[in-house]
Amino acid sequence: MRKLLAVALLAAVSVPACGTGGASGDAVPVVIGYQSKTINTVTAGTLLREKGFLERRLAGLGDRTGRRYEVVWQDYDTGAPITAQMVAGKVDIGSMGDYPLLINGSRTRQRGGEGSRMVSVTGYNARGALNMVVVRPDSPARTLADLAGRKVSTSVGSAGHGTLVRALGGVQVTVENHQPSVGASALQGGGVAALSQFVAWPGQLVFAGQAKVLYDGAALDFPTLHGVVVRGPFAAAHPDVLAEFLRAQLDATEYLHRAPLEAAEVVARVTGLPPEVVYLYNGPNGIATFDLSLKSVLRAALRDDVPLLRSIGDIEPLDVDRFVDDGPLRSVFAGTEDLVNPARVTGVDPVCGVEVGDPATAGEVWFEGEAGTRPAATPDCLLRQVKQAGRAVRAAYVPDAATGTRWFAEHSFWVRDGDRLLPFTTEAAAAERGPVLSYEQALAEA
């Protein structure tokens, strides 16, 4: 396993990149490494790029300093190649998941000097639902124990890998180290029994009817997050640029909260992901909470990740309190310790006629031909909306009755509980509450 992790990281060094040579003339280059399809990082990546927030902020800085700044964007599938490019001095600022963040901090410090610093969070889920283990729809597996002795695909050293290791406990599996797209193909082809990956791969595969959730990372009740790292030498040389990057990230975050559906469609258009999948994660009450704050609970999670990461890979010890630097962020944003998602489903339920507000029960329906979504106060109200409308649904979103994970109603497992119908992301969780109903059966009973 140690050798696999080293190979995964070192092989990424060969990825070609524009580096600082991507800027022209006397411009100050600002090289950003991002993951367009890791939609928990869009406020420091795809959405930030497409809306031009950073370029506008740097243009304003240039007016004040008399210098010209040129942003070079580099897109990657995972955090490992971004780290490799940062070690080589070819990427200045990058965004990635919790495990890759820690690997980044460790590897950049191994080279001496200032290493890298984590300066903000892009998005997080306080329970861990950004990562999931999925299997084929026809898989007989119901729990992780059913994978014993089987092959499971993940990206070694990724956030999805971390969830898999924590969740397996004593269950022994053979880990196949794949890029997410390769792992998804292996799952479809039967080369692996399961796939453990980060946002948005589980949602994408389930929405396409190519997988079902075997394990929801929220069952761990352990925070998972993505964040932003900056090379120490770059931060020291250009603190004003870093400050403008963080202001631009805040611009992107505020835009996402202000116009979530529009933002989801922007990301979908650029990445090729279905907008319904992007909105699952990035919409109101979404699986991802977008907030730049370096919250104490997230710092504690990173500290707890270090020994686990060291046990599965050859990395050096890392002082997380030194690695996480809130100084640059505090200069532009006060931050908060609040874990409440600021993006919430609100409005009046058109069928039940009540105010929508409680994130533990609130959902949304996106009907074909409609530009916006309709709020639903409860899963029962949502089912009634769909049933009464008698029209095609693009997507319907409900929170898991146990974990609160926002998921597709059509791909949830339902249980009758007295006069309520409760949705769950996994069949195993639903079966603990009673006989499991399909979406169609739940719809019929609504």
UniProtKB/TrEMBL annotation:
The keyword Signal is assigned to this record: yes
Q: Where is the SsuA/THI5-like domain?
A: 112-263
Signal sequence, renumbered to the chain: 1-19
The record's InterPro entries line, in alphabetical order, gives: SsuA/THI5 (IPR015168)
Q: Which domain of life is it from?
A: Bacteria
| The keyword tRNA processing is annotated on this UniProt entry | no
**What keywords are annotated for this sequence in UniProt?**
Signal
Pfam family of the protein (one)? NMT1
User: Which named protein is this?
Assistant: NitT/TauT family transport system substrate-binding protein
Give the organism, scientific name. Answer: Saccharothrix australiensis
